[in-house]
From TrEMBL:
<dbReference type="Pfam" id="PF03725">
    <property type="entry name" value="RNase_PH_C"/>
</dbReference>
<dbReference type="InterPro" id="IPR020568">
    <property type="entry name" value="Ribosomal_Su5_D2-typ_SF"/>
</dbReference>
<protein>
    <recommendedName>
        <fullName>Ribonuclease PH</fullName>
        <ecNumber>2.7.7.56</ecNumber>
    </recommendedName>
</protein>
<dbReference type="InterPro" id="IPR002381">
    <property type="entry name" value="RNase_PH_bac-type"/>
</dbReference>
<dbReference type="InterPro" id="IPR015847">
    <property type="entry name" value="ExoRNase_PH_dom2"/>
</dbReference>
<dbReference type="GO" id="GO:0009022">
    <property type="term" value="F:tRNA nucleotidyltransferase activity"/>
</dbReference>
<dbReference type="InterPro" id="IPR050080">
    <property type="entry name" value="RNase_PH"/>
</dbReference>
<dbReference type="GO" id="GO:0008033">
    <property type="term" value="P:tRNA processing"/>
</dbReference>
<keyword id="KW-0808">Transferase</keyword>
<keyword id="KW-0548">Nucleotidyltransferase</keyword>
<dbReference type="InterPro" id="IPR036345">
    <property type="entry name" value="ExoRNase_PH_dom2_sf"/>
</dbReference>
<dbReference type="InterPro" id="IPR001247">
    <property type="entry name" value="ExoRNase_PH_dom1"/>
</dbReference>
<feature type="domain" description="Exoribonuclease phosphorolytic">
    <location>
        <begin position="10"/>
        <end position="140"/>
    </location>
</feature>
<keyword id="KW-0698">rRNA processing</keyword>
<dbReference type="GO" id="GO:0016075">
    <property type="term" value="P:rRNA catabolic process"/>
</dbReference>
<comment type="similarity">
    <text>Belongs to the RNase PH family.</text>
</comment>
<dbReference type="InterPro" id="IPR027408">
    <property type="entry name" value="PNPase/RNase_PH_dom_sf"/>
</dbReference>
Length: 238
């Protein structure tokens, strides 16, 4: 029995509310159970120096957790003078995951920055950030297409992410914090809407796992991605 009472293949409740901020070109609040993340997209007429003049666009991301997004207060990273290693790792993951679903030629020489701010954390914040980040990106690109700044849709496939793991010897979908903290195996699966893998992060957290168990987790992940992409499309009217 899972602590939440969910079935092994049952996700937490997912909701995505769009247009939650006034100034960003695209924004949403994604809630996956008790994990809530604010995702905003900003369009800028510039690109990093290493692709300047190439005609290619760029999608990047920044990630952060509010001090009381967790059970005890965390110090702001700005107050400590630098970002932590976990933050840097996650925001790089978000950026490269979203770029995998983008035709950078069609985007043109501009940058879209996705900001993911964790309001409340209960496991799976990086997965929620990627899933919500795509929605914010979709809304921003819709504005570019509406104004005629972009002619061909640069978003070739939705991108979403879900966690899976082995808890009490059973493969489960969408780990919340109590499960994540006790799981023998923990993994994050990032995929496109057409089931193409972007990245898989799997680690033994106390017990090893077999190839067969890995396949079971991948099957669960595909089920979760299907559900998330359907919610993304409904939120963006895609």
């Amino acid at each position: 029995m899972r602590p939440s009472g969910r079935d092994l293949s049952e996700m937490r409740a997912v909701s995505i509310e769009t247009g939650v901020t006034k100034h960003a070109e695209g924004s949403c609040m994604i809630e996956i159970g008790d994990t809530h993340v604010l995702c905003t997209a900003t369009i800028e007429p510039r690109v990093p120096p290493f692709i300047k003049g190439s005609g290619l666009g760029w999608v990047t991301a920044e990630y952060g957790m509010l001090p009381r997004s967790t059970t005890s207060r965390m110090r702001r990273e700005a107050a400590m003078g630098k970002q932590g290693g976990r933050t840097v790792e996650i925001q790089r993951l978000i950026g490269r995951s979203l770029r995998a679903g983008v035709d950078r030629v069609a985007l043109g020489e501009r940058q879209i920055t996705i900001d993911c701010d964790v309001i409340q954390a209960d496991g799976g914040t990086r997965c929620a950030s990627i899933t919500g980040g795509w929605v914010a990106l979709r809304l921003a690109v819709n504005k570019l297409m509406k104004t005629g700044d972009v002619v061909s849709d640069p978003l070739v496939d939705p991108v979403a992410a879900i966690s899976c793991g082995i808890y009490a010897g059973q493969p489960i979908l969408d780990l919340d914090y109590p499960e994540d903290s006790e799981a023998g195996v923990d993994g994050n699966f990032i995929m496109t809407g057409t089931k193409k893998l972007i990245e898989v992060q799997m680690s033994a957290e106390g017990s090893t796992y077999s190839r067969a168990q890995m396949n079971e987790l991948l099957d669960l992940a595909e089920k979760g991605i299907d559900e998330l992409v359907a919610i993304q499309k409904e939120a963006t009217n895609a």
